[in-house]
Amino acid sequence: MRKLAEKILSMDRRAIYLLMASAALLPFLTGPLGLPSRVSPEVKAVYDRIESLPEGSPFLISMDFDPASKPELYPMAEALVRHAFRKNLRVIGMNLWVTGSGMAEKILSDVAEEYGKKYGRDYVYLGWAPGATNVILGLGQDIYKTYPRDYYGNETSGMPVLEGVRTLKDIPFMVDLAAGDPGIETWVVYGKAKSMAGGCTAVIAPGMYAFLNSGQLVGLIGGMRGAAEYEALLKEMGKATVGMDIQSTTHVLILGLILLSNFAFFATRRRR
Amino acid sequence: MFLRQYVPMAIAFVMGVVFAVQYYVPHPASEELLTTVNDWLIVVSGFSMVLGLASLMGSHWAKVRRGVPGWGYSLVVFLGILGTLAVGIASKGKMFAGEGLTLTALGWVYDNMLVPLQGTVFSLLAFFMASATFRTFRARNLEAGLLLTAAFLVMLGHVPLGEYIWDKVLGFLPPKADQVMGWIMNVPNMAAKRGILLGVGLGMIATSLKIIFGIERAYMGEGE
Predict the structure, then answer these.
(1) Is the pLDDT of residue A263 over 70?
(2) Which residues in B lie closer than 8 A to residue A137 (C-beta atoms)?
(3) Average pLDDT, chain A
(4) CA-CA distance, A161 to A166, in Å (whole number)?
(5) Between β-strands A123-128 and A58-64, what pairing exists: parallel, antiparallel or unpaired?
(6) What residues does each domain of chain B span?
(7) Which residues of B touch A20 (CB under 8 A)?
(8) How far is B36 from B23, CA to CA, in rounded Å?
(9) How far apart are CA B77 and CA A187, in angstroms?
(10) Tens-digit pLDDT profile for residues A179-198
(11) Which of A69, A100, A120, A224 is the most exposed place for a label (fewest CB within 10 A)?
(12) What count of other Cβ atoms lies within 10 Å of the Cβ of residue A249?
């Protein structure tokens, strides 16, 4: 028994890598697990806030992430933009991470095409500007001075989608999707939006609960799980719902490894 | 001495005091001042990127020149930067010709090189995390045991398969896995995070005051 426990504790890391790869590939072999995620109140709050907005309201979405966080935040952004277009909101997209600007553009243009939305009238992509903190402060002062031109080089002043919008205070609701800094915390500190929600990677989600509890965020979508919950609310199975199967198998494997290593650890300790 | 030390200190003092007061003055002139200075800062931030790029290239060039171990990776940095630059300049921002292609050459590089490369590197974390968890996550004492239990419950409640297992094994208990996870995140986790946030906030105020009054001078390169 002791020998077996010691063998387990000194398991080659390549064996763990192999197990991990097998767990990640398992859903591809078995097909969808079909296990639903229960919708958390934090995610439901974001959905309800968008639902409560009158048609034609401006809605700002800042996609502050790069390709490294694509599996978690890309489906989240798609789901939010889909919801906004379904509600016929005027979508204003932007981004504070230069390496994510191309992805953010793709999200907006792809979903807009899906819903037959017209650029400049139904949505706009402002793109990236340097100095995240100052960009947010600038948006609180005058959007047109901070972004005189959009991502494609068009003049922002006079765009129908921005009608009646001069500062962040003219936007009734915004969501920041963040993979780190600058992100939700930066928007909470420097932004002056009327109400705001956040979406983030699962790693940084625990740090955002303080803002949620203080009311600075009306809701929070955390990680791929949050994105899958949002897709469930929209009744649309997207990339996050599919991805949750892989996350399920890998999480359960890691939990199994934790249990195994602790059993082995105590077995060897007791003998000693 | 005067230009290198007293002038930056004077600028830091004046700007620090002016903008600390500006926050509490809701006059249009005060708002205009903030907008103007903010515009300057956005422009300066743009230049800082050029500075960052020059610094990055400088440090990697030094590695290549000295032939330090792993200098080949520094060469890859140059290939990446110069290659992307060349593609951007040569394509002149024009869209690709051909059916179904609506990308610029730079867009192609972004979609087919940067996105998969970053995604791959980040995905590798899962393997290292699994290995590290197996080796280090052990209940060696009470504190480690508490941390382990909390992490275990959060991970279990985070995925549908974990919820399914909870329902099958511990379904007789009133709270569900996601509710247990929610409690951990909303109560003990938040209490700790709030303490950290307050500490960081107070630290930021203290550091700001030290910079404004010239006690903290590291930003001028002092102490290097």
Answers:
(1) yes
(2) 34, 38
(3) 93
(4) 12
(5) unpaired
(6) 1-68, 138-224
(7) 126-127, 130
(8) 14
(9) 32
(10) 999 999 999 999 978 899 99
(11) A120
(12) 21
* Spatial contact of A262 and B148, defined as CB atoms under 8 Å apart: yes
- ipTM summary value: 0.82
Lowest pLDDT segment from A64-68, A152-156, B87-91, B125-129: B87-91
| Six token digits for residue A109 | 């243009």
DSSP B101: -
Q: Is A257 exposed, middle or buried (0-12, 13-18, 19+ CB in 10 A)?
A: buried
Backbone CA torsion sign across A143, A146, A149, A151: negative
**β-strands A220-222, A196-200 pairing:** parallel
Phi, psi dihedrals of residue A233, rounded to the nearest 5°: -65, -35
Cβ-contact B16, B208 below 8 angstroms: yes
Contact B161 A142 (CB under 8 A): no
Report yes or no: A22 at the B interface, CB cutoff 8 Å.
Answer: no
List Cα–Cα distances, A114 to A51, B1, B61, in angstroms: 20, 63, 47
**Candidates A38, A131, A210; nearest CB to B45:** A131
Using CA atoms, how far residue A249 sits from A19, A37, A221, in Å, is 11, 14, 21
Backbone angles phi, psi at B102, to 5 degrees: -125, 35
User: In this complex, which of A68, A210, A257 lies closest to B122 when CB atoms are compared?
Assistant: A68
**A41-236 placed in CATH 3.50.40.10:** no
A178 touches B72 (CB < 8 A): no
Give the sign of the dihedral formed by CA A234, CA A235, CA A239, CA A245: positive
Q: What is the DSSP string of B31-92?
A: HHHHHHHHHHHHHHHHHHHHHHHHHHHHHHHHHHHHT-TTHHHHHHHHHHHHHHHHHHHHHT
DSSP H/E element including A83: helix A70-86
Kindly indicate the confidence band of residue A272, based on its pLDDT and cuts at 50, 70 and 90.
Answer: low
Residues in chain A within 8 Å Cβ distance of B176:
38
d(CA A182, CA A100) in angstroms, rounded, equals 12
User: Measured between alpha carbons, how far is A34 from A248 in angstroms, rounded to an integer?
Assistant: 11
List the structure tokens of B99. Answer: 């059916």
Count Cα neighbours of A167 within 13 Å in the Cβ-side half-sphere. Answer: 12
Peptide bond into A182 cis (omega under 30): yes
Q: How confident is the model at residue B97 (pLDDT cuts 50, 70, 90)?
A: low
- pTM beyond cutoff 0.90: no
Q: Nearest to residue A244, comparing CAs of A224, A261, A264, A262? A: A224
Spans of all domains in chain A: 2-31+245-271, 41-236
d(CA A174, CA A193): 7
